[in-house]
Design a protein that fits this description.
By secondary structure, the protein is of the alpha+beta class. It is 41% helix and 21% strand. It has 3 domains: 5-55, Arc Repressor Mutant, subunit A (Orthogonal Bundle); 57-72 and 90-143, no CATH class; 151-246. The chain has 6 helices and 8 strands. Strands 1-2-3-6 form a 4-stranded antiparallel sheet, with helices on one face. It has a 4-stranded antiparallel sheet with strand order 5-4-7-8, with no helix packed on it. Helix 5 packs antiparallel against helix 6 (114-145).
Length: 249
């Protein structure tokens, strides 16, 4: 692995996502045994991946769920077959789960009565659209986390939430993650900012624990901030920052 010694810390994200080649994984595992900071990073990234997978899951429509459960009693079970498990990535597994859910919606719609077919077709299209959007978001976030030049900074917000930002110059963006973020007061929202030459520019919103891709190009940005703003956001911060982290150069 042709990396400077200080760059090994940046492998925490791809290690957590199983995105390292075998040689890199062995080298980083040896480093991880003696580096508490990287151990915390790996745990944070794995937790973020789990929250992203949970966020992408879609609940089936109630009528579809009821018919499926009712049909289970009349379906004969096959004998279990044991096969060797092949390694899969969390992103691939999530993609298959999302597509399987869309397929289940399609099969249920085909088996339903004519009166429900059109409604379920519409529901299926909405599920597939949300699945595609979730997949695209996951691809974008995981691309930043696994980027070879990814750099991470951590911080604690004034409301107690733990936060981190992963920046990639190659991707020209950053991923912001939060844990322990309290629900905002009614009529308020958490807004993210990128600091450019002393000016804070809107960079999107985060509504709950998890990870979001920052809006805007991070090239030249010196800091990422978090404020509590009126619902819908503001063109400039209207409150003192809950969090202001200097981005790693």
């Amino acid at each position: 692995m042709n990396r400077h010694a200080s760059d090994v810390h940046g492998l925490a994200a791809p290690y957590a996502l199983d995105a390292l080649d075998p040689g890199e994984r062995v080298e980083f595992a040896a480093h991880l045994a003696a580096c508490a900071a990287c151990g915390q990073d790996v745990a944070d990234f794995r937790a973020t991946a789990a929250r992203l997978a949970a966020a992408a899951a879609q609940a089936p429509p109630v009528p579809m769920k009821q018919r499926t459960l009712a049909a289970i009693d009349h379906v004969r079970q096959h004998q279990p077959r044991v096969a060797a498990a092949a390694p899969v990535s969390w992103r691939g597994a999530l993609r298959r789960n999302v597509l399987s859910m869309a397929l289940a919606a399609s099969l249920a719609a085909a088996a339903s009565s004519a009166g429900l077919a059109a409604w379920e077709h519409h529901e299926k299209q909405q599920l597939e659209q949300r699945a595609r959007q979730s997949e695209q978001r996951l691809d974008a976030v995981s691309g930043v986390l696994a980027a070879p030049d990814a750099r991470t900074v951590h911080g604690r917000a004034g409301n107690g939430a733990m936060a981190s930002a992963v920046v990639s110059d190659l991707r020209k963006t950053a991923v912001f993650t939060a844990s322990g973020l309290p629900a905002p007061p009614p009529g308020r929202t958490y807004q993210l900012w990128l600091g450019h030459d002393g000016t804070m520019r809107p960079a999107g919103f985060i509504h709950r624990d998890g990870a979001v891709l920052l809006d805007g190009d991070t090239a030249g940005a010196a800091a990422v901030g978090l404020t509590l703003e009126p619902a819908g956001g503001s063109p400039q911060p209207t409150t003192a920052p809950l969090l202001l982290m200097a981005l790693p150069a």
